[in-house]
């Protein structure tokens, strides 16, 4: 199971837009995400358009998955920027991973600006059938 960690992310994004912060501050910018379960794994997808795969860093420590990426500005020093609405700078997001996930077998792929992380469900957490004894296994005791 995955848990969201930043309930005020949307409020921060709106505040940054209202105050004219262009995303180049040290405060992490928004990193939109989808998360869903598909069979025996959870799939998490992050939108990171324009981010170089070399700038993406994934780290797992004590059941916390941290995703960091950086989109640098593409303007030259002599550019006269008219509009700069696309967020730039550091992007960061943390997910708390439940004990039912296998953090040792996480896989990640980056294609067309989307980072896809696959988190398998641990064997101990998968549903399984339990055999029920009875009937022929019982011994009758006559008193």
Walk me through the structure:
Pfam families: HSP20 (PF00011). This protein is mainly beta and 143 residues long. It has a single domain (2-76, 83-125), classed as Immunoglobulin-like. It has one helix at residues 9-19, and strands at 2-3, 33-38, 41-47, 57-61, 64-71, 89-97, 107-111, 114-120. A four-stranded antiparallel sheet has the order 1-6-5-4, with no helix packed on it. The protein has a four-stranded antiparallel sheet with strand order 2-3-8-7, with no helix packed on it. The protein is elongated, with a radius of gyration of 23 Å.
Main attributes?
single chain, about 140 residues, Immunoglobulin-like, four-stranded antiparallel sheet, 8 strands, about 10% helix, about 35% strand, A-crystallin/Hsp20_dom, HSP20-like_chaperone, Molecular chaperone (Small heat shock protein), stress response, Small_HSP
Oligomerization: single chain
Number of domains: 1
CATH class: Mainly Beta
Number of strands: 8
- Known CATH architecture: Sandwich
Average predicted confidence as pLDDT? 81
**Strands side by side in the biggest sheet:** 1-6-5-4
H/E order of the elements? Answer: EHEEEEEEE
Low confidence ranges: 22-27
Helicity, in percent? Answer: under 10%
């Amino acid at each position: 199971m995955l848990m969201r960690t930043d309930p005020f992310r949307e409020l921060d994004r709106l505040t940054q837009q209202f105050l004219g912060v262009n995303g180049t501050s040290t405060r992490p910018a928004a990193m939109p995400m989808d998360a869903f379960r598909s069979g025996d794994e959870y799939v998490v997808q992050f939108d990171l358009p324009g981010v170089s795969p070399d700038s993406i860093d994934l780290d797992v420590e004590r059941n916390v998955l941290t995703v960091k990426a950086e989109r640098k500005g593409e303007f030259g020093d002599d550019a006269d920027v008219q509009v700069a609405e696309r967020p730039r700078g550091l992007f960061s997001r943390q997910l708390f991973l439940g004990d039912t996930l296998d953090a040792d077998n996480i896989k990640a792929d980056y294609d067309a600006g989307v980072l896809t992380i696959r988190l398998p469900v641990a064997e101990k957490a998968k549903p399984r059938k339990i055999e029920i004894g009875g009937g022929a296994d019982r011994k009758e005791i006559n008193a």
